[in-house]
Amino acid sequence: MNKEFEEDIRYASSITKLSETELKVLKEADAAAEELVMPEYEHYMNHEFNTEAIPVAKKHGLFGIPIPVEYGGLGLSPMVHSLVQMRLGQLGLGFATLYDVQTFIAANIISRWGSDEQKLKHLKPMASGDSIFSFCLTEPEAGSDPNMMSTTYTKEGSGYVINGTKYLITNGSICDHMILFAKSKDGNGITSFIINSKSEGFSVGTVLKEKIGLFTSDTAMLDFENVHVEKEDIIGTEGKGLHIAYSALLNGRLGIGSACIGVIEASLSASIKRAKERIQHGKEIGKHQLIQQHISAMRQNLEMARWPVLKAVLEKEAYDKNPDNEALLKNADINSALAKRIASRLAFESADRAVQVHGGFGYSLMSPVGQLFLDSRVARIYEGTDEIQDLKIASDVLGAGYSAYA
Ligand SMILES: Cc1cc2nc3c(=O)[nH]c(=O)nc-3n(C[C@H](O)[C@H](O)[C@H](O)COP(=O)(O)OP(=O)(O)OC[C@H]3O[C@@H](n4cnc5c(N)ncnc54)[C@H](O)[C@@H]3O)c2cc1C
């Protein structure tokens, strides 16, 4: 098993006892990640979506991890889920981003807010990986402030029609279903819907190829022109869409924070190897003290990022056991913001140090660290930017009346 992953498991085991079944699943995740190293590298070099990732994850059963057993999943804890994502993060954030949207966000939304019919229809194919989801919130003019969205729905016949454009959507051009957020034209607020990607009136616009990293992840613009949905496609209560989006992003941030642990580990392990192999000025660069400083800093970053992520996992577990408790929800929410904010900053900083340790070779995709550097940058943007997390954290500390925006 991967040495860093063994350490993650050992660390988690000091907090929560992991069962034999859970350890077996983690072994599968390790095998999947190992199998994905070469395909991920090759597709990254070609700046293209990694078509091999979904089949490998399906084969190793990774999509079913958080989905309840009665709906075809493994029903495992947020701790196991987080550990799996740490392992995937060692590959960079390409597949971890797909996995985050599918399992941390979409599966969570349907398990938590879906009707019995929606659960029966969607969770089983999600657990097997036969149905891939996207999460469509952002628009060209509505990013940090989703209230500004202009995608609309309006009543028509027995259901509704949807019109608008979504932007920067992970899994956008490859998904089977979408969780879409739209604003009522009749003043009923923002509502979330499940939409089949084969629906008439839906089309994929531009697939974003000009990203500065994350090449193996699919990111697309999506257009909705009079797309018909039925009343049964509404998730939860009409008008409560943003509440659902925010509760899903809580979970998504846990996933991204976890993947960032993997980025730090991969940055450190590649740097240790390079520091022992590369010789300059008559000795291994690892014997130059300023290189040791980078190694030490990455090691410290790992230690500093781990606990906030695991603490957020524990807070999420507490909330899951009591999902109507508002105080537990708030705790889980703020801890997942802290986890993502801290881990993403430290992941980017670690990948930057790893590039430095690798010198000119590090500034290329031939090295293992170039990808980590490019990919980790996005973790400070998606699922709530650094600034949005800072505002959330500050208003939590300062208390009522100190929210920077309504
Ligand atoms: C690769 C990638 C994948 C993505 N995947 C998805 C996806 O699957 N689904 C989805 O819905 N979205 C997705 N996104 C979109 C992402 O969530 C948004 O980019 C992000 O929320 C920020 O929105 P924005 O880009 O419009 O930036 P803006 O909101 O325009 O922000 C620009 C800057 O202003 C700052 N800012 C904004 N408001 C405030 C404020 N009140 N106070 C202080 N500073 C502020 C921001 O922090 C940022 O620094 C993805 C983005 C990327 C890059």
Structural class: alpha+beta
Mean pLDDT: 97
User: How many domains?
Assistant: 3
N/C terminus separation: 48 Å
Determine Rg (CA atoms, Å).
21 Å
One letter per element, helices H and strands E, the order comes to HHHHHHEEEEEEEEHEEHHHH
What ions, cofactors and ligands are bound?
flavin-adenine dinucleotide
What count of helical segments does DSSP give? 11
* Shape designation: globular
Write up this protein.
The chain has 406 residues and is an alpha+beta fold. The chain folds into three domains: 3-132, Orthogonal Bundle (Butyryl-Coa Dehydrogenase, subunit A, domain 1); 135-235, Butyryl-CoA Dehydrogenase, subunit A, domain 2 (Beta Barrel), CATH 2.40.110.10; 241-398, Up-down Bundle (Butyryl-CoA Dehydrogenase, subunit A, domain 3). The protein has eleven helices and ten strands. The structure holds flavin-adenine dinucleotide. The site of flavin-adenine dinucleotide (FAD) has 23 residues, from strand 1, strand 3 and helix 11.
Question: Briefly, what is this?
Answer:
By secondary structure, the protein is α+β, with helices and mostly antiparallel strands. It has helices at about 5-15, 20-45, 55-60, 80-90, 95-115, 115-130, 240-275, 290-320, 325-360, 370-380, 385-400, and strands spanning about 135, 150-155, 160-170, 175-185, 190-195, 200-205, 220-230, 235, 280, 285. It has 3 domains: about 5-130, Butyryl-Coa Dehydrogenase, subunit A, domain 1, CATH 1.10.540.10; about 135-235, Butyryl-CoA Dehydrogenase, subunit A, domain 2; about 240-400, Butyryl-CoA Dehydrogenase, subunit A, domain 3 (Up-down Bundle).
